[in-house]
Write a structure and sequence with these properties.
Low-confidence stretches: none
Number of helices: 27
CATH topology of one domain: Immunoglobulin-like
Strand content: 15-25%
Distance between the termini: 16 Å
Structural class: alpha+beta
CATH superfamily of one domain: tricorn interacting facor f3 domain
Strand order of the largest sheet: 6-5-9-3-2-12-15-14
Bound molecules: diaminopropanoic acid, zinc ion
Radius of gyration: 27 Å
Mean pLDDT: 98
CATH class of one domain: Mainly Beta
CATH architecture of one domain: Sandwich
């Protein structure tokens, strides 16, 4: 496959004045006619006329009304064109019913829908399918379907046809078309300038009762973006469509967002609190893209973080405002460490702005998204809230309508604040996670912190330069009072000291408050000091982190030395967990132990080869010890967290349920599932039902409940995804691969549906010790299925390959088994470009 480089960027030789499409729908023979006005681009070097196009059957092409015979290649077509402006016309035939890659125009449960980001439009018609070519679109849809939607505003319709016009110039990746017998949940929003916008959530008949929450989330997002970023919606109508077969979570097509149904449909009976929160965040995310992504888009796909990092940052601000900022921050860091850190520290490591790719779909990663958002968080911390707001205003003013770059983005901050961001820019080009170590000194009333930073080498980058690190620090005196409130130290050197004077006694430092930079903090601290911070830190994140550090240290000793559980930590934690003045959601997070992925990273960093079975055994032993030590406390905690009011997915109620269910998991270790069964039987919402089921599975007492659950929910695809997933994720490791294998034999294992495939295979990978079973059965099962899925859906297959990214961290036997499976995948004839790139990088 061909490698594409950022440094080779060249503008397209023409501008597109406007696009007119006529799409005559038929499952196996959809006809797409295009009329496109091309005008020579004065800012581009001379080049031959090339349009992208894949898997298209060209029926006819004409220039200025004269038929032409272009040269067709697997990637597109070449054609001789006039030197001035001209009208391009083409007609192609495509087969949406046979499109299982879910890219371009395809069918899902009888409805037509599209997915064009990143490069799907070229599977619909011949076009310069690149984000810097922006045009207005008029779309005529012909078909018998009741509902026919495209971008922009509806302009006209009649029997068997509908026409839409999008007045905002946009790149082809934001094109969308939907047609089907859908029903809508309507709504309305009045913008701050008084314009009324029609809102709709379109679903298959039967799902109407699962739209109300999404609609409220949409309105809240529209309001929030006006209030916080000054951004108003810019069309008369905003449509959301729920689709069952979808590779991603959702897609921000202009005025016509298309959602994986799992990311929009919600009801208390069928969705958990976590589902509700995620739906709220994704609706916000896609809506926020209207400005950060659509009105200002990316010049090329290397700039993906320009829209994704910023939009993730914006949706995290939104969630923080709607719910608890502290809980959101801790959850985001857990996720960053579980998904982005392993990526950044393994063979798939790449900069937030990559410099080359073979298949761009492989770069919709935790690094581009989540680290990309962390970079913006650091920038905001460095310049301050006021200057951040000024810079964003300037960004929207200066670049509205542009296809922009990271250089444009940083220049806006430089111009708005007068700062030089040349060094900060390294965050976009340097891959890898910086390690930050710290020593302290106290003499003559002066307290000094000395930091050293160092980033280990990553693929293609052996030498690393120092990064700009905003290190938020607070100091506590030995009584537990804060003597220096949160201060942001700006570290720019490889080694740098910061002093605080007027401190007669040596303070206790609280370092990297709020996780102010995405680094690995290395600091050997006495457990007493950690327990002190656990009890007294005013920064919620560092309070949680102190406990997490103690848990990691405890598990490390249990795994490597066969030590017993750290009862001093368990007792210190108890004080926090039983503190009724604290937010239950925060207390629930305090109860969560380091993820297996986190422990693998810690062991690897300390030169210990991680043994998945030992990690699992130690974690289990620690949970048992917590349960036993707190046997009297647990029932009281569950009582305290009981919710008696009618179900609401709000922060308050879901926090209580999170605490109650974390406690139930511990209780189950003592009663073998008695309390869980009682909760299962009494549950009237999915949060309570599913967590009870999870406990029953862990206890091996699930048979009755599992059958009851299936009988109750067999007709609900999204709920059954949970049923599939939970059995594999929560079962004992020795059963995981067998169980996953057995589930794939079922008739309702619809493996071409990405949600169902991920429910089983993604959960297998998450059952850490199960996936890494010594006999290689987990690896083999997954590889078998990846090989099979690649023929249908390369994108989802490629993404799932990343579960092998840590393969070199394990013992030689496991390494050999994983390597063999990766080589088996690589050797498959006709392997997709997507998966070829992934396995090549994994094996390099
Ligand atoms: N739809 C995906 C997202 O919003 C890709 N743009 O992140
Ligand atoms: Zn996005």
């Amino acid at each position: 496959p061909q490698t594409i480089y950022l440094k080779d960027y060249t503008p397209f030789g023409w501008q597109v004045a406007d696009v007119h499409l006529t799409v005559a729908l038929a499952p196996n023979a959809t006809r797409v006619k295009s009329r496109i006005h091309f005008v020579p681009n004065p800012n581009a070097p001379e080049q031959e006329f090339f349009l992208h196009g894949e898997e298209l059957n060209l029926i006819r092409a004409a220039i200025d009304g004269e038929e032409v015979a272009p040269e067709i290649t697997p990637q597109g077509l070449r054609c001789k064109v006039p030197s001035g402006p001209f009208l391009w016309e083409s007609e192609v035939e495509i087969a949406p019913a046979e499109n299982f890659a879910l890219e371009g125009l395809y069918m899902s449960n009888g409805m037509y829908c599209t997915q064009c980001e990143a490069e799907g439009f070229r599977k619909i018609t011949y076009y310069p399918d690149r984000p810097d070519v922006m045009a207005t679109f008029t779309v005529r849809i012909e078909g018998d379907e009741k509902v026919k939607l495209s971008n922009g505003n509806p302009t006209d319709s009649g029997e068997g046809w509908a026409e839409w016009h999008d007045p905002w110039p946009k790149p082809a990746y934001l094109f969308a078309l939907v047609a089907g017998d859908l029903v809508n949940h309507p709504g309305e929003f009045t913008t701050r300038s008084g314009k009324t916008v029609e809102l709709n959530i379109w679903v298959r008949p039967g799902d109407e009762d699962k739209c109300a929450f999404g609609m409220e989330a949409l309105k809240a997002s529209m309001k929030w973006d006006e209030e916080v970023y000054g951004r108003e919606y810019d069309l008369d109508i905003f449509n959301i469509v729920a689709v069952d077969d979808f590779n991603m979570g959702a897609m921000e097509n202009k005025g016509l967002n298309i959602f994986n149904s799992s990311c929009v449909l919600a009801s208390p009976e069928t969705s958990t609190d976590a589902n509700f929160e995620r739906i709220e965040a994704i609706i916000a995310h896609e809506y926020f893209h209207n400005w950060t992504g659509n009105r200002i888009t990316c010049r090329d796909w290397f700039q993906l973080c320009l829209k994704e990092g910023l939009t993730v940052f914006r949706d995290s601000q939104f969630t923080s405002d709607m719910r608890s900022a502290e809980v959101k921050r801790i959850s985001d860091v857990i996720d960053l460490r579980a998904r982005q850190f392993p990526e950044d520290q393994g063979p798939l490591s790449h900069p937030v702005r990559p410099e080359s790719f073979q298949e761009i779909n492989n770069f919709y990663t935790a690094t581009v998204y989540e680290k990309g958002a962390e970079v913006i968080g650091m920038l905001k911390r460095l310049v301050g809230d006021e200057d951040y707001a000024k810079a964003l205003d300037l960004y929207f003013e200066r670049h509205d309508g542009d296809a922009a770059t990271i250089e444009d983005w940083l220049k806006v901050f430089e111009d708005a604040t007068g700062r030089d961001l040349a060094q900060f820019k390294r965050w976009y080009s340097q891959s890898g996670t910086p390690h930050l170590s710290v020593t302290e000194d106290h003499a003559d009333g002066v307290y000094t912190l000395t930091f050293k930073q160092h980033t280990p080498p990553t693929p293609g980058q052996s030498e690393k330069a120092p990064q700009v690190l905003p290190i938020a620090v607070g100091l506590l005196n030995p009584n537990g009072d804060e003597v220096v409130p949160t201060t942001v130290l700006e570290m720019t050197e490889a080694e740098q000291s910061f002093s605080f004077d007027g401190l007669s006694s040596k303070p206790v430092p609280s370092i990297l408050r709020g996780f102010s930079a995405p680094v690995v903090l290395e600091r050997e601290t006495a457990p007493e000091e950690k327990r002190f911070l656990l009890a007294h830190d005013t920064d919620a994140f560092n309070r949680w982190e102190a406990s997490r550090d103690l848990a990691r240290a405890c598990l490390y000793a249990m795994i490597t030395e066969g030590a017993g559980p750290d009862t001093a930590w368990i007792d210190a934690l108890e004080q926090v967990v039983r503190d009724a003045d604290l937010d239950p959601a925060f207390r629930a997070l305090m109860l969560s132990l380091p993820t297996q992925s986190e422990l693998v990273q810690m062991l690897h960093a300390r030169g210990v080869t991680p043994d998945p079975d030992a990690i699992y055994a130690a974690t289990e032993a620690l949970k048992n010890a917590m349960a036993e030590r707190w046997s009297a406390l647990l029932p009281a905690l569950r009582e305290e967290s009981a919710v008696t009011a009618a179900y609401s997915p709000d922060a308050e109620q879901s926090g209580k349920r999170a605490l109650g269910n974390a406690v139930l998991a511990l209780q189950t270790r003592l009663d073998g599932g008695k309390a869980a069964q009682a909760q299962y039987d009494a549950a009237d919402n999915m949060t309570m039902q599913l967590s009870a089921l999870s406990c029953l599975i862990s206890a091996g007492a699930e048979e009755t409940a599992l059958a009851a659950f299936e009988a109750q929910w067999k007709d609900d695809r999204l709920v059954m995804d949970k049923w599939f997933a939970l059995q594999v994720a929560a079962t004992a490791p020795e059963n995981a691969a067998t169980r996953a294998g057995a589930l794939t034999e079922r008739a309702d294992f619809d493996w071409k549906n990405p949600n169902r495939f991920r429910a089983v295979m993604g959960s297998l990978a998450m059952n850490h010790a199960g996936f890494h079973a010594k006999d290689g059965s987990g690896y083999k099962l997954l590889a078998d299925w990846l090989i099979r899925l690649d023929e249908k859906n390369p994108q989802t297959t490629a993404r799932m390959c990343s579960v092998f990214q840590t393969w070199k961290r394990y013992d030689t036997q496991r390494q050999a088994l994983m390597q063999a499976e990766l080589e088996r995948i690589a050797a498959k004839p006709g392997l997709s470009r997507d998966v070829t790139e992934m396995v090549t990088r994994l094996l390099s």
